[in-house]
Design brief:
single chain, globular, binds coenzyme A, Aminopeptidase, 4 helices, 5-stranded mixed sheet, 33% helix, alpha+beta
Length: 148
């Protein structure tokens, strides 16, 4: 099913904070309001972001956060990052995340990006399936960790 024709995609604004935090709580099962306050404040300062929301009949139903690499981990500016993506469970499986991703990709390409990176927990089957469906494949980077 695709209802993406009715979906409006637009850049994220500070006013979207409460609704994004609400969706995030629904998809994650826990709230992290401080995180979103910090994130949206940072976005305003950095023009190289391509973070968007999806609206259906005037209501924000999903978001995607990301932008151009600023050499984090030595990764060049031709790489874009997807930081977080979320769609309200009441509106999932209608092509909303795909539409958000396509618009973000278009904007990143205009900024000179030639490939997009993201990180997914290997146990998150749903998110892995979603990214795989969009054409993502396992990349060259290995995440390293050490317990303290
Ligand atoms: C993953 C997520 C963004 C998908 O949003 P969505 O709007 O439902 O996705 P779409 O409808 O655009 O799906 C596109 C394709 O991805 C795949 N997909 C999406 N959700 C899926 C699921 N639950 N199971 C299997 N495949 C899925 C499908 O192949 C789908 O295409 P199809 O419906 O034609 O088969 C959404 O489920 C979500 O918000 N999950 C929580 C994300 C999260 O944990 N974020 C925090 C860390 S980044």
């Amino acid at each position: 099913m695709t209802e993406s024709a009715q979906v409006t995609i637009r850049p994220i604004t500070q006013a979207d904070l409460p609704r994004i935090a609400e969706i995030d709580t629904k998809v994650l099962g826990q709230s992290r309001p401080g995180y979103w306050e910090m994130k949206l404040a940072l976005l305003e300062k950095h023009p190289q972001h391509a973070s968007l929301v999806a609206e259906l009949d005037g209501k924000v139903v999903g978001f995607i956060l990301g932008g151009v690499s600023r050499w984090e981990y030595g990764i060049p500016e031709t790489v874009g990052w997807i930081d977080t993506i979320g769609v309200d469970p009441d509106y999932q499986r209608r092509g909303i995340a795909r539409t958000l991703f396509q618009e973000m990709s278009r904007r990143l390409k205009e900024m000179g990006v030639t490939s997009i990176y993201t990180l997914v927990t290997r146990r998150d089957w749903k998110l892995l399936k979603f990214f795989h469906r969009l054409g993502f494949q396992e990349g060259d980077m290995i995440n390293l960790e050490l317990d303290l």
